[in-house]
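Could you please consider the sequence and fold following this short note?
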Amino acid sequence: MTDQENSNDAELVARIDLLLSHVWMVRAFLKHCEEAEEDDELNDVQRTLYDYMLALGAPLQSGDHAKYLKQAKKKLKKLVAAKDLLVEIQPEISSHTNFKMAAASLSQAVRQIESLLTSGS
């Protein structure tokens, strides 16, 4: 791998990791909301978000950008499915602004992650 490719991968990982900070905040909100105690689908969403980020943690810590990107791409469908599920069930769960903003935030972050991972692939 060339220095340019390494630099590009490092930049891509940094951009994705920044977007994952939004995903993490949505996950934390969903994990600790009262509604999650009663809704299995909502729990599935927050667990999937956690699993996605957990899979990327070790490669991020070790600086293995190629492995990070490979894992991010491999698990992208599950991340997108979790986002789609939250958007679908959010109106049924709650119409509170917190839930609307969580769905909007997750949607935007996942769309951007998907775009970063699929452009140039």
In short: The radius of gyration is 15 Å. The CA atoms of residues 19 and 109 lie 6 Å apart. The mean pLDDT is 94. DSSP finds five helices and no strands in the chain.
